[in-house]
Amino acid sequence: MRRNNRELMWNAYNNGVVIPSFNIPYLPMVAPIAQALVDTNAFGFLAVARPEWTRFEAGSQEAVQREYAMFRRESWMRLHQDHVPVVDEDQLAVDFMPILSRAIELGYDSIMVDGSRLALMDNIVATRQVVELAAPHGIPVEGELGAVLGHEAGPLPPYEELFQSGQGSTSADDAARFVEETGADWLSVACGNIHGAIRGSAKDRQKARARLNIEHLARLRQAAGIPLVLHGGSGIRKESIQAGIANGIAKINIATDLRQPYEQAQRRGKSVDEARQIVYERACGLLTDVLEMADSRDIINPA
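Given the sequence above, the corresponding structure tokens read:
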């Protein structure tokens, strides 16, 4: 029996393991990531966010879906529509519903609406619209609450200042209300994690070595009562990731850790095949050394 992404996320959540979600800013990255999942016998999502076709070279939702279809092995992977913002990183309104409707039409296995730049009630309304859109198709919806910083223009404050101040952290009270009033299946939260930069020269800089506020994450888990998602997973300390998984993180998004090596290889004049090999080796390393991924069967057919 084919399990949908809703069941797979609950399997991860209930069994204390995590599903990695690898972002695709360049189409040639699909093949090595898919192969890494198979070769390490890990289960993961391949994902594309709106900035990856507006700021990078993913092309479009359609292009990613076509490339994914060439390498799809469903015992090891599914396709996820990542961040579709209601208001984008430039503070511009996005016509988000047609984008998410198109993802469903194309066969994406789950979708994400990001209303985190809105006031709470406006975020609830937008996310509920998407849940109602997806429900007849059996497609699970991820929402976001709190500010996972990093995509906006201008430099971030020093990471330690961000962490100590709790700037952008998801409110536990808001999380309980958000889940209750939207019906979202999973919740992306902010608890010390940050995105990698996607603008100009900043996108080439090494990310800060982030960590998670585990006490706050435990409160969020209790308040939300659904699988939690960690965006900005690149660069987070291994011990923090492991503690996060133990406290409700069922999906971790990884972009910068694979995007930057691919871009660096291209700038050094490496061929596409050589750049793909670098991505493959890096993905295998992440799956085995950093995430210590569970056998794919623990997600697909848990005991």
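Residues 64 and 293 are 25 Å apart (CA to CA). Try to locate this feature in the token string yourself.
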